[in-house]
Design a protein that fits this description.
This protein is mainly α. Helices cover about 70% and strands about 0% of the residues. Helix 1 packs across helix 6, helix 2 packs antiparallel against helix 3 and helix 3 runs antiparallel to helix 5. The longest helix has 20 residues.
Length: about 130
């Protein structure tokens, strides 16, 4: 069963942001939310691909686009390895797992893109900002 679908992606984004606000490190100290800049950097990676996917009319995406989607995992992992707040966000939002669920399908990528937009919206709504 997929992590997100058309009916639940907004609620999943809401819950992921709420949960990420509560996360603590191993010593019990609150980690805090990612900054607006950090979350927008992740979204910008997706936006570049999104433009190509929107203009691509077949359900099965081209190998070039699939490669760019696969690279998202690498960038998410890299950014998560550099900053505990980003790692917390990537894990709580299940971004790696959801990228894998795209499976080269246009409709799955479009859903993922909307999920990321919902994450950004809830982040802002719950007071996310640059620190």
């Amino acid at each position: 069963m997929k992590i997100i679908n058309e009916a639940n992606y907004v609620d999943k984004a809401d819950n992921a942001i709420k949960e990420s606000k509560k996360q603590k490190d191993k010593k019990g100290k609150f980690i805090g939310m990612v900054t607006t800049t950090q979350i927008r950097n992740l979204l910008s990676l997706i936006s570049a691909i999104d433009n190509d996917v929107r203009s691509f009319r077949k359900e099965d995406l081209s190998d070039s686009i699939k490669g760019r989607i696969a690279y998202l995992k690498v960038r998410f992992l890299y950014d998560a390895g550099r900053d505990q707040k980003v790692k917390n966000f990537v894990e709580t939002a299940k971004l790696i797992d959801i990228v894998e669920e795209i499976d080269g399908k246009r409709s799955n990528f479009m859903l993922f893109s909307r999920y990321m937009e919902a994450l950004v919206a809830y982040h802002r709504y719950y007071g996310g900002k640059d620190q």
